[in-house]
Write a structure and sequence with these properties.
Blueprint: E1 5-11, E2 36-41, E3 47-53, E4 61-69, H1 72-76, E5 83-84, E6 96-97, E7 108-117, E8 121-124, E9 128-132, E10 145-146, E11 164-172, E12 176-186, E13 188-193, E14 196-197, E15 201-202, E16 213-220, E17 228-237, E18 259-268, E19 273-277, E20 283-285, E21 290-294, E22 298-302, E23 321-322, E24 324-325, E25 332-335, E26 341-347, E27 351-354, E28 360-376, E29 383-389, E30 391-392, E31 398-399, E32 409-413, E33 420-422, E34 429-437, E35 448-455, E36 461-465, H2 468-483, H3 508-512, H4 519-532, H5 554-557, H6 559-571, H7 574-595, H8 632-652, H9 657-676, H10 688-696, H11 705-719, H12 728-731, H13 734-740, H14 744-751, H15 759-764, H16 795-804, E37 807-810, E38 815-818, E39 828-834, E40 839-847, E41 850-857, E42 862-868, E43 876-877, E44 880-881, E45 888-894, E46 897-902, E47 905-912
Parallel strand pairs: 2-9, 16-25, 22-32, 38-42
Antiparallel strand pairs: 1-3, 3-6, 4-5, 4-7, 7-8, 7-9, 10-18, 10-24, 11-17, 11-20, 12-16, 12-18, 13-14, 13-17, 15-26, 18-19, 20-23, 21-22, 26-35, 27-28, 28-33, 28-34, 28-35, 29-32, 29-34, 30-31, 36-39, 37-38, 39-40, 40-41, 41-47, 42-46, 43-44, 43-47, 45-46
Helix pairs in contact: 4-6, 4-7, 6-7, 7-8, 8-9, 8-10, 10-11, 10-13, 13-16
Catalytic activity: Hydrolysis of terminal non-reducing alpha-L-rhamnose residues in alpha-L-rhamnosides
Protein name: alpha-L-rhamnosidase
Organism: Sphingobacterium lactis
Amino acid sequence: MKLQRVILFFVLIQTLGFGSTSYGQKLHNLRCELMNNPRGIDRQAPRLSWEIQDSTRGVYQIGYHVIVSSSLAKLEREIGDLWDSGKVNSNNSTTVYYDGQKLESRQQVYWKVRVYTNKQDLGWSAPANWTTGLRYYKDWKNRWIGLDGYQDTDDEQKGQLSGRYFRKDFETKKKVQKATAYIMGLGLYELSINGKKIGDHVLAPTPTDYSTNIKYNVFDVTSDLAQGENTIGVILGNGRFYAMRQAKPYKVKSFGFPKLQFQLEIQYNDGSTEYIESDNTWKVSTNGPITSNNEYDGEDYDARKEFTGWDMANFDDHSWQSVNYVQEPAGRFEAQLNAPMKVMMDIHPAQIIQREDGKLIIDYGQNFTGWVKLKVSGPAGTQVKLRFAESLDEQGNLFVANLRDAKSTDHYTLKGEKEEEWEPKFTYHGFRYVEVSNYPGAIKKENFVGRFVYDDMATIGSFQSSDSLLNRIYKNAWWGIASNYKGMPIDCPQRNERQPWLGDRPGSAYGETFLFDNINFYCKWLDDIKLSQKDDGSIPDVAPAFWRYYSDNSTWAGTYIIVAHMLYKQSGDIRILKDHYPAMKKWINYMQDRYNDDSGLMVKDSYGDWCFPPESIEAGRGKIADKKYPSKLLASATFYHLLTLMGDIGDVLQDKAADQYAKEALKVKKAFNQTFNNGDGTYGSNSLTENILAYNFDLVEVEEQKKVRENITNLINHTYNGHLHNGVVGIQWLMRALHKMGEDDLALKIATQKTYPSWGYMIEQGATTIWELWNGNTAHPKMNSQNHVMMLGDLLVWYYEQLAGIASKENAFQVISMKPVFPKGLEAVKASYQSLYGEITSDWQVDGQKLRWQITIPPNTEAEVFIPARSETEVFESGKHLNQSEGIEKISRDEDYIKVSLKSGNYLFNSHI
């Protein structure tokens, strides 16, 4: 028998509230072999998970035994003084919730699991651990400090604040056993001890609505303390706390001036504990080198003003101010679960263009988010200017009109040393090109390193096909999605917006889960949405509600329900639904009370099919896309779909209201057809989106479905010449609707178009991410981002579930459905997805009438696999007839497919199709 082993995961789901990020360690959630993770877990029942690694066929779990101990020594002796589950006969390996003794704040917890499979007892896993955080408000022994008000170094008229530098000297007189730092630095912070930066995160903490909740971070700093004199240093930037663009206070939320709460807990070998707290003994200065910082405008840094050794002992801080005690933010304190932002990749220039005016244009060959790490040498006082943009105009100058009034510019003033190195701390840019002015010295590519910044999550999916355009679209999607992960899913990273719009992601978020390990990320966003809900039930268009947009439309706010339902499907964690169901019910009731007409239709919409394509590329030339076309049909169709989801969720949660949602949905369906069905296979004004929504949401009666299908295909093939014609609402459902209609050949035709409007057209015009607009090369620049996610829609879902045939049927891929489509013109697809149980792969090639299909099913799962074939006798697995192959449980006929039920393992199928 092949070697089997168990990998422990400490599964942290944000809606459960378990945890902050220990930035001192490399962590890819759900992908760590050993979760020795000192996170601050501030809730009582974390979700434990493990993965069995074994390529043997037919391996599944039949039982487990979890032990949780208060010490490693007890764990090694198999003493579960905190929790001993005993042997549990179960195949559950992904949603085992801690059910032991009450855990106190700061408690170190150790655990391991013994797994029993149908093949053998795997024995005990290696140990893993977590640490509970500060569970109670009173666990914070310190106070908030800062400077409430503008300082001489600030520019009140321009709304610019300089960086706030805080320092605290202290002494350890005994041998340190353990030291833990807890910090809330708002809006953004960088922590150092004895001159060393703590952690490799950037732009921390994760953004929230600070009036509702604030995330704290936890660090094990034991090895960073010295015996004797020590110094803590903290720099604060503005982030979203001191808001950008405060000219419209009715629209933009601002929370005040930067402030800090910090707590260092030092446990000595003699058993005593000392606390170093943020109090009025700290010193602060605003006269440091960061003279301005702003997410939209950039960062200004004057190296001549550096405080050499400011965060080390024996620094002379007599000119620094004493800090003030300041009002604490209103939000509750929570451990941060979602991964921090980090510099995830360095990108070197593809070329450097030297202009006649002395300026440099640096082309990185890729649109991304982050900044430039600069190396430079020259005279003191020389100011280097770096201006960022996504593209160039026809004259080769930076194209900045689409940035609106975001300056997107960094300034670095040299101190005059031999070689200086600098990168900003409290800003980021969306760019491909950088214009560098006044750069002294030799011009080398290594002096301008691009730093790609996004949330620290693993890429867990891969996709390749025989079509190079499909592959390039996938690559562009990856870059665009990653670029817009900033502690929340933002719409774009370059202009003066960067907001987490709900309407951008009802389908896009689903596709993203196949690429990135982002369940915690989106669970955090669900919390943002819930906490932004008004007492009457209204949900905003943007969450966190940094912009006060509460327009009450089902197509935007309904994303809350759609994403929650999707996360449950992809993660299997029922507590996601439990945590958000009351708020979702409240919103449904609010919308029905205020906006339903007598027939049950939803009359309220705000945006319509936002950013639908102009009839031609020329028709949209110079036109502003910021136009609203509210649609009662779109609102009603979407609300019907949301009612059906609420019925499904209610059934899962065994809520009696589920039946009522089903009845209300039937009422809406009847009124919808009476109002919008034209009787000839068309709905409403016969737009593609109107018909797609009616068909995909099952609003079309069975006897009329054929006519609607024919109308949709006629629209695409003839009216739109084989192209899509959807805005952000329709594109979220287009590809799945076409698959539902059995029109995957047509879906492939749309996906591989290179002419307007299409994803391929963007690429033909040089796009390296996904545009906001289908006509992004001709539209008015006011609303014309070149790095957006919303127009991806459900394309990636179609890639994985339809082209590759990787979809969950039950319990977050414990039962896998593998029924790929084989559209004409596509000869091969190779894809993988790292599920909670392990990697699922699908690799097929078609040569004439011959199909070769390799798949991998991870241990403790099974799959229903549909193989196109005329008969069972024409299907072989690893050269054997199906009934002779190990691991195949059941064989049956399903229309044009041979359906086989498989246990885990690697399989190779050959058939005639």
